[in-house]
Amino acid sequence: MEDIVTFPYIGHKAIKVKFFVEELSTIEQMEKSLNDLYDGWLYILLDLKNKHFHMFGLV
């Protein structure tokens, strides 16, 4: 059976990407302003070292 991508699926994926980008920039800004708090802090949702974004369904 061939996989068919529907328009609602594409729209859902676009929303996930949008929220992901917004959330990542917010975390980066907080790290800059509260460096002592986030020093050595590990990303819980993202494996940025290996670029895995499984939590957001972007893989």
Concise summary:
This protein has 59 residues and is mostly helical. Helices cover 53% and strands 0% of the residues. The protein starts with 6 loop residues before the first helix and ends in a 21-residue tail after the last helix.
Description:
- The chain is an all-alpha fold and 59 residues long.
- It has one domain.
- Helix content is 53%, strand content 0%.
- The two termini are 21 Å apart.
- The model has no long low-confidence stretch (mean pLDDT 66).
Note the main attributes of this structure.
single chain; 59 residues; mainly alpha; 2 helices
Please give the structural blueprint:
Blueprint: H1 7-33, H2 35-38
Q: Which shape, going by the Cα principal axes?
A: rod-shaped
Overall domain count: 1
- Residue share in helix: 40-55%
Query: What is the mean predicted local confidence, pLDDT?
Result: 66
- The succession of helices and strands, N to C, reads HH
Strand pairing plus helix content: what structural class?
Answer: mainly alpha
Q: Oligomerization state of this entry? A: single chain
CA radius of gyration is: 15 Å
Give the end-to-end Cα distance, rounded to a whole number of Å: 21 Å
